[in-house]
Here is the input.
Amino acid sequence: MNALEHQLDYVFADALPESGGVKEVAPGVFWLRMPLPFALDHINLWLLRDEIDGVKGWTVVDCGISSDTIRASWERVFDSVLDGLPVLRVIVTHCHPDHVGLADWVCSGGDKKLVRLPLHINDEAFADALVAAWRDAAASAERRTQGRAHAAHR
Here is the structure.
């Protein structure tokens, strides 16, 4: 335990959003608490009321890990929290998979593919995310190749 932790004030300690849920913490600032399949069992994501060129909508800050559970949670948010307003931009703070994992999916408007938004991310984090995606794709291709080779030898 951190010796200084007693100095922290957890304002919402007794009022956390449920897993996959949303809580308004200030006018126009919404806290999303999405589950993770790790020892760290959740990630905090953010929705901010926004306006770009006179168009009212939302900014998404971080997207969550790529999983069907998180996609379903986001679809519920899109349908029930946004008040019919569009997502105007998506910002990813860094390249960890729980922050950038669903960025492309969110930028394309979820399962309904309603929009195509640019991703706001710094160059280094973007390069790191591309390398991670390439490694995942290469590992997946290797597993498929090994599976076909194994099946061919039966």
In short: The chain has two domains: 5-121, 122-154. Residues 122-154 form one domain.
